[in-house]
Amino acid sequence: MILKKLLHGLLGLLLLPAVAGLGRGAFRLLVEAQMDGGAARLITHFSAGAGFWLLVFVFLGRPVRTYVLAHELSHLLAAWLTGTRAGGLRVGREGGSVEVARGSIWIALAPYMIPLYSLLLLAAHALASLWVDPAAWAPALPFALGLTWSFHITFTLFALSRGQSDLRPYGWLGALPVILLGNLLLICAALALASPTPVAGEASLLATTLKETYTVVFSALKQHLR
Q: CA 214, CA 216: separation in Å to the nearest integer?
């Protein structure tokens, strides 16, 4: 267990420059999107939905069971996507569980990275668009995505603040950079799709930003160790 924590802690340290690089990339994408009228409107509606949920979370009752369901389903989805046998879903207000044949860091941390209800909303949007003109609900979609994504972020922070057994085998240093990286990747992907620049171009710029960040970090370390 100690060796596992040390190895994942080392991985976490190596991922910190990537977290910083993606953070820079997300900020650049946000500024770029705000300069385009259509993208800026999407971000405004998304932010309104996120703010609305934040008010609900702070001042009204928190649907803990709804979060626990998403949490355990994310474990289940991550297990299935990695070819791991899983089942035995149990959900309650005090917590839940899923039986997994073989654990991994991706399965353990999936609920803290996957905004499940946002993904389900996008899937429902794609399916409904096959039969109904999506223009009927298109203005409400960014608001709903902001609300569900804010649900994911607020409950993730709430859950982590209370301590989670999912992180224990990997340690905070091993787990938090992975969680931050997973969330930043999704944020960058969403902003890249909203940006007027082609997605391939944005991906290339993000890769360049990551390379520059690692170059700066390792150059500084090399200089310090001389």
A: 5
